[in-house]
Amino acid sequence: MLAHFIEEEEVPTTQISLIRLHTEKTKPPRALWVSFELGRPLGIPNDPAFQKRVLLAALKLLEARSGPVLEDYPEDAPASHDMPTTLACPVNFTQEQVNLSETEQLCAAFRGEFVSLQPWYDMAVKKQERTTVGISGIALDDIIDFLCSFLEGRVPENPRADVALPYTLSMVIDDLKSYYYEAITAQPGQESVSSQVLTNWFWSETIAGQVLFSIREVSKKSEDVLMQIVGSALIVPTSVRHNQSRIGDTV
Amino acid sequence: MVRLDHMIDAERKYHEELKCPTFDTEPWVAGPSLSERRVAIISTAGLHTRDNRPFTLDPGDYYRVIPGNIQANDLVMSHVSVNFDRSGFQQDWNVAFPIDRLREFAQQGIIGSVADYHYSFMGAHDPMSMEQEARTVASLLKKDNVNAALLLPV
């Protein structure tokens, strides 16, 4: 749709399409449909040759004589490791401590898991010379306290003055997930693990995933409408909510 | 893998029933050969520089400007949706923002040049609400002598 407006303003456009049905309906001037998963318009990370072929095919549409043009890209993305791999955190942090509440135990376990991933996160940043953590502006050390305060029934002070608290929560959760994903993919043998394996690992096997399921429930019950929206739609992916009832049952 | 028949029912239903606007006109602007094109990326991934304010669903909070000389560690993603993969972008920014590939194409003479400025919208907004901003971005592209806008979804 953006392409329609931009082309109307006399700037030629070309685009990649991920959902062919939507492109068939909106009919942008030039579009290359690709079979890649949502979030990956160029197909696959760290494969410049593949990315170049996709990009060139999209740019070549600019030389079409007339349109609208909707072309199908012939290659699927090269398969990443879809077989189940061992992406478990090495230690079971859920040890019962009699003098702590259930929430306190969960948060203590969460903190232990988070800290155990720190060397791998540091390794990831060193290897990639880059991190996608940091959109919330909260220090890594403060993430656990911020998230656990929701579970303890406290509304934490919003560390950002420029956005409402529910947005800050959503951003902190993004930072948390990026931290976990970057850390685990820095471990040996996990460089080309598929997004599906990563998603299953995070939501099925980590305490962080359990904590986020709990925060979702708390947020949905909030009196703040924006917090309800965040809880309902912007914490747990739709596919996870439908596929992984096992986790939902345990929270 | 984004074939609708590969999605779970709830996601497929969402995409099948999503209202897409249709238009009475089919704009088409011709241009020179690819080797004479100046290319800008227009992403809808909610990308921005690290020091920019993250995206929200607030009305009017529609796009950010990304300088053409940006380095990988300065670009982050704050799209509000949780229903697309981010691990590809985490491992290699070119998966969603192929600036290195465009720079290589420019060096090889496959395209003319890479724009001085790129733009990112955040695709969770109703696209029709972003019409005015899309037209504004087009006017900015023209000032940057861009004659090829490459639109990339997530």
Distance between the termini of chain A: 41 Å
Number of helices of chain A: 11
Number of domains of chain B: 1
Strand pairing plus helix content of chain B: what structural class?
Answer: alpha/beta
Helix content of chain B: 10-25%
Rg of chain A to the nearest angstrom? 21 Å
Return the average pLDDT of chain A rounded to an integer: 91
Largest sheet of chain B: 5 strands, mixed
Based on CA atoms alone, the radius of gyration of chain B comes out at 16 Å
Explain the overall architecture.
The complex is a heterodimer of chains A (251) and B (154). By secondary structure, chain A is mostly helical. Chain A folds into 2 domains: 2-72, no CATH class; 102-250, no CATH class. Chain A has 11 helices and 3 strands; from the N terminus they run αβαβαβαααααααα. In chain A, helix 3 (48-60) links the parallel strand 2 (30-33) and strand 3. The radius of gyration of chain A is 21 Å and the shape is globular. Chain A starts with a helix and ends with a helix. Chain B is α/β, with parallel strands linked by helices and 154 residues long. Chain B has one domain. Chain B contains 4 helices and 7 strands. In chain B, 43% of the residues are buried. The mean pLDDT of chain B is 94. Chains A and B meet through helix 1, strand 1, helix 2, helix 3 and helix 6 of A and helix 1, helix 2, helix 3, helix 4 and strand 7 of B.
